[in-house]
Design goal:
Largest sheet: none
Distance between the termini: 43 Å
Order of helices and strands: HHHHHHHHHHHH
Helix content: 55-70%
Number of helices: 12
Amino acid sequence: SYNTDNITNQALWDALRNCRKKLAEELAVPPFVIFHDATLAEMLERRPENRAQFASLNGVGESKLEKYADAFLAVIEEYADSAGQGTTDTIAESLLLFRSGLDIQAIAEKRQLKDTTVYSHLASCIEQGEVTLEEVVDLKQQDINLIHETLLGLEDGSRKLKPVYDALDGMFDYNTLRCVQAALQ
């Protein structure tokens, strides 16, 4: 098994496999035709930053370099950026897993956290502009407007969600409210 023991490596590994899967689907070929796992493992290990470094990986020839390098380099670069900001940070780990295509429940299970904890991580990311509200919660625009109005109507600076929850008769759970509130910041 490849070095996917730590969570950040695992997240990049998942993201690389996801990238390969998307390309394979677009081209209607099996994933290994794009790259074998061994090549992905090398990307994980060596983190190439440009085409020259990418070309030196095993299994990368001229045509694969031309066709696929940019897509995989983008995934690795996105990962490197978040690593530069201290990825040990638990919020960054949740964000990375979310970006690699896992849903909130899957992230919670993988990291042995409660769903609400993962939602609060993603709410922080919404506030920072790292992800959009729409990516995290599946709400109609009119529902978002309704929650916005209620939040603004009750905003006493405390950011407490219970009055909002009560005012809306529990129509939306706290996780959803927290994310909408974050988007308002």
